[in-house]
Here is the input.
Amino acid sequence: MVIMLSIHPLIATAMVVSVTGLPAVPAQAAQHAVPPMLVGIRAAHQHGLDRLVFEFHGRLPAQRDVRYVSKLIADGSGQRVNAVGSALLQIRFDQADGHNRRGKVTYGPSRRTYALPGVIQVVNTGDFEATLTFGVGLAKRVPYRVYTLTAPSRVVVDIATPYRNVPVHEYFLNTANYNTGRRPYTTAVQRPVIPPATAFGALQRLFAGPTQAERAQGLRFIRSKATGFSKLTVKNGVARVYLTGRVTSGGSTFTITNQIRPTLKQFPLIKWGQDLRLDGAE
Here is the structure.
């Protein structure tokens, strides 16, 4: 698919009572039998780095493994998991859970977007048999450092950001405006991207979607069933965005193009013309 643009739980401390005639189990041993539970994920920019923090209830996970990967695979199903980024960091916690006894997720959204220089997205890729995994989409492959903190138990990943960023705007659907017929239907938010590929970076951030705070304000990314884009080319006054997935409007008057258009129009060399073609779209 091508878009063409014309441009210019706490354990008691007492002994466990045996009711079956078996020896009682010390509470401390019982506590260590319960995997730590992930209760929060935070990310913020510090001087020269993005800091990603995983907070656990109980002890720290027995093992932590962080490494770059070429793709993200879901534990259990083996299916590929999409995450926006030019580099993918896989984070695995052994003997840890991300859900409680009722099966409810304990750390918040399983997919979240950040408006940070390096960290674009954090996506859960597994919570299976006490193995908890995440994928982190980064703007660039860079050095990182992993360490732990206690009281509370935290695993910290510091991701270097040794590059210059420039601000760009992303245009997302404003659901309140759209539902009431009040224009404009899009609202601009700011993101940092790495020059000189600013247009590519802007599209990348667009496909990552709104942050949690922006979603709370009613902003959404309408992807029209596009799973992403494979590349952006500019040649002889024509910009082409190669979309992946089976793109379709689904009969909606607001589609992915209504967000791509203003996002690309902001750049000095891109002058939006009247001719737009979505090959293969309904």
The chain is about 15% helix and 40% strand. The first strand starts at residue 2 and ends at 6. The two ends are 11 Å apart (CA to CA). The CA atoms of residues 41 and 54 lie 5 Å apart.
